[in-house]
């Protein structure tokens, strides 16, 4: 029995690499490894440049990203002028939430980023006729969107 457990562990894919596609996370400037490295980076605060990277890498407008993440544009501009130039941990977590949902939505549409963004902005009956992006303000809402994406991936009518 012990040998089977060891064999299984040898061939098991690490959770961090299977959890997200590194490319999207790297575009946003997150550590590709995820896990504890990601947690530490979020606690330290992401660079304010993450907003520009999302804009350039995923073609998400600055206004769109700020609105979804609840980051105030004036506060962002003020931070850019400081030595630290970091989002606070709560803002960083909200940016990570957006990237996480974008990642699985893009995967749902087989890599078609534009289709994923359209879907995220379209009201869904399964979400009480609210668009998925409207629910990203809270972790619970993001989980609901993630669950819906999971159901759609598995062909469950929602």
From TrEMBL:
It comes from the Bacteria. Residues 38-100 form the Antitoxin Xre-like helix-turn-helix domain. InterPro entries: Antitox_Xre, Xre-like_HTH, Xre/MbcA/ParS-like_toxin-bd. This is DUF2384 domain-containing protein. GO terms for molecular function: DNA binding. Residues 105-155 form the Antitoxin Xre/MbcA/ParS-like toxin-binding domain. Signal peptide: none annotated.
């Amino acid at each position: 029995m012990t040998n089977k457990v060891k064999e299984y562990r040898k061939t098991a894919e690490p959770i961090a690499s299977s959890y997200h596609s590194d490319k999207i996370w790297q575009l946003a400037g997150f550590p590709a490894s995820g896990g504890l490295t990601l947690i530490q980076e979020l606690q330290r605060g992401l660079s304010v440049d993450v907003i520009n990277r999302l804009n350039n890498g995923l073609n998400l407008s600055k206004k769109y990203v700020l609105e979804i993440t609840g980051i105030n544009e004036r506060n962002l501009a003020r931070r850019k002028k400081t030595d630290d130039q970091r989002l606070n941990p709560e803002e960083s977590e909200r940016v990570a939430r957006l990237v996480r949902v974008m990642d699985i939505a893009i995967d749902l549409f087989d890599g078609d980023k534009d289709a994923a963004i359209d879907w995220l902005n379209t009201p869904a009956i399964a979400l009480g006729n609210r668009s998925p992006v409207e629910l990203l303000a809270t972790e619970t809402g993001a989980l609901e969107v993630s669950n819906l994406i999971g159901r759609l991936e598995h062909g469950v009518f929602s």
